[in-house]
Protein 1
Amino acid sequence: KPDFRVFPSPAAIADAVAAYLAERLTAQPATRLGLATGNTFVPIYARLVARYRAGGFSFVRAASFNLDEYVGLPAGHPASFRAYMQAHLFDHVDLPAGKGALPGVEGDIEAACQAYEAAIGSEGGIDLQMLGIGRNGHIGFNEPGSPFDSRTRQVDLAPSTREANKGDFPAGEVVPPTAVTMGIGTILEAREIVLVAIGAAKAEALDRAFRQEASPDCPASALQSHGRVTIFCDSEAAGAL
Ligand code: GLP
C-alpha cells in the first residue's frame, strides 16, 4: 500500500519533500538519486537549495540520474531538462560535475539509452527516485501504453503532453515530438520512490494510478507493484482518493 501524505498547500509539500531529501542526504550522503523536472519540482528544489545553504549536508558523495529529456533541443535551450536542472539545482549545490546525468539525446540515441542504463547499474542502482505525474498518468515521459517492463528509450510524446508543456517553451516554438525517458521497468528498480502531485488537474491521474486496477493505460499505476512508494500531495490532488 502506498503511503499517502496529504498537505494543506503546495508550499507545505515543497517544504516536506525538500526536508525528506535533505534528511536522506544527511543520513546517507552517497545516495543515488533519480531526479524529476516539471513545475511541481521548482519550489522543491528551491527549498532544497535553501536547506543546503543553511548547511548540514552535502551532495559531494551523491549522484543523480534524471528521468527524461526532450530530443532535438539545442544545448542550453531554456525548456531542456538539462537547463532546468542547472538552473534549479546543479548550479547551486556541490554535486560533482558529471554526477548529475540525463539520458543522451544526440547521435545514436539507442546506444546512449543503453549506456544510461549501464551507468545507473554501475552506480549500484537508484536509491531514491523522485517522480511527478502527468495529467494522463505518465511518469517520466512514459505515456499511456508504455509497457511496465520498458527500459530507457526514445518515445513519442502524447499530443496532450505536448499541449500541457507548451508553456515551458518560448512563444511560437513547437514542443519536440519525441523524448528519451527511463522506462517504467527502470523506474520500478529504484529501491524507494517518492511521487509528488499538486492540484486538481492531477486528481484523476492519482485516482487511476492508485485506486484502480493497474493498467498500462495509466503508467503510474505500475507503482502499485512497488513495495516502497510515498506520495506527497495536496488535498486537491488527493480529491478522488
Ligand atoms: C512532464 C515530465 C514529467 C512530469 C510531468 C508533470 O512532462 N516529463 O516527469 O512529472 O510532466 O509536470 P508538472 O509538474 O509540470 O505538472
Note: DSSP finds eight helices and ten strands in the chain.
Protein 2
Amino acid sequence: TAFNDAVSRAKPLNAFLVETPDHALAAADAADAARAAGEELKPLAGVPIGMKDLFCTKGVPTTAASHILEGFTPQYESTVSQNLWNAGAGMLGKLNMDQFAMGSSNETSAFGNVISPWRSNDGSTAPLAPGGSSGGSSSAVAARLCPGATGTDTGGSIRQPAAFTGISGIKPTYGRCSRWGTIAFASSLDQAGPMARDVRDCAIMLEAMSGFDAKDATSLDLPVPQWEQSLNASMAGKRVGIPREYRVDNMPEEIEALWQQGIAWMKDAGAEIVEVSLPHTKYALPAYYIIAPAEASSNLARYDGVRYGLRDLPDGANLQEMYAATRAAGFGDEVKRRILIGTYVLSAGFYDAYFTQASKVRTLIAQDFEKAWESCDVLLTPTAPSAAFALGEKSADPLAMYLNDVFTVPSSLAGLPAMSVPGGLDRKGLPLGLQVIGRALDEQGVLNAALAIE
Ligand code: GLN
C-alpha cells in the first residue's frame, strides 16, 4: 500500500523511469528476517532508495535517460549500487535525469522533464526545475518518495539539484566512489554521491557507497572513514574561508543574504571566518565546458548501434550510415552539442588552443584551492546563483544554463569533496542551498560544517 501510494504521488513528478518494487521488498524482507533472528542489522537494512539511471543495475533497464540506450538491460551491477545492496538497501526504481547527466534542469531527458515538488508562493503556477542532472533523485527525495537516492556529480549535478529542492547532497573526493558500471560522461570529473534529507543520512549512505574497487583505475585505495560516527557540529578551532571571487556580478540580493546567514551560523558554531582568494575562479566555467565535452565526445563514441540499445538501420544502409542514423536518432540535442564541442576542441588544429589550455587552467584552479587551505579548513559559498527557475526558462539558452554551474564547477575540476545543505527559503518560499568545499579526503570536515549549518 505504501508503495502504491508513493507511486501515485510520484507519477506527476516524472521522477521514476522504471519501478522495481520487488527489489525494495526483498531488502525489506531480508531486514525483517535478520531482525527476527536477532542478527545485527546492516547499516541500510531494508531502506528503499532510488537509483539514478546512470548506474547499471543487473537485469533492470538502464538508459541514462537517452533513447540511444533504450532496450539496454545490463548484465552486471555497478559497484556503487552493489555496495548499497551489500549494506542492506533495496531499490525502489531507476530515477529520471538529464540525458547522460548533461544539464542543470532535467530538461534534457529523453523521457520528459522531472518536475520539482516545490511551488513558489507568489501565485505563479509554473512548474519548477528540480535541478540537474540528478533531478529525479532530488525530486523523489524532496517529495519524500524515498529517504535517499544516488546522484552523480560531474560539475554540480548532486549539489545544484539538492539546493533547488531543499535537500542535502555530497560529492566526495574524486576516487572515493568507484565509477565501474556507472555510465561515463566525463571520466576525470564523474563522482557518485548520496542525496538525502539531512547530513546524517548522507554520511550513512556515503559510507556504504564508497570504497576501493580494483575495477576502476582511479579508485582510491584507502579505508572508508566512519563519517557518521564522527559527525560533530562544533566548528570550534576551525577556519571557514569565504572566497572573494565567488561574489559574482549581478549576484541576487537573496543569495548574498543567504551567504551572510551561513557565515553567521558558522560563527555561532565557533568558527573563525577568513577571506580567501581563488583568483582563477572566473576561468572555471569555460575550462569545464571544454574538458567535460571533450571527454564526453570520446566516451560516447561507443554508442554505435552495434553493442547497446538502439539500432537504426535504414534500408540498404552500410555500416557508416547505420552509425550515423543511430546516433542522429538516439542522442538528444544537448548531447549532440557536447559531442560537437568536444570533437572540435580535440581536433588537430584546435587541441592546443582549447583542450591543452583548459587543462592548464584546471591545474591553476586546483592550485588556488591548495593555497586557500593554508589559511582555512573549509570554504563556504552559495551552491547556485539562484533558486530553482521555471521549467523552460533557460532551455533555449545553453549559456544561461551553463552559468548556473558557476559555484559548483571549480571544486569538481579540483576533485575536492563538496556538499550542499539547505540554507533557508527565498522571498518566494523556495529553497536555497549553501555549499561547503573541503580539502581532498576531508569529507568529515565537509559533513561537520554542513551539520553546523543544518
Ligand atoms: N550542469 C553541468 C553540465 O551540464 C553538470 C552536470 C553534472 O554534474 N553531471 O555539465
Note: The pocket of glutamine is lined by residues 101-104, 133, 153-157, 185, 292, 405 (CB under 6 Å).
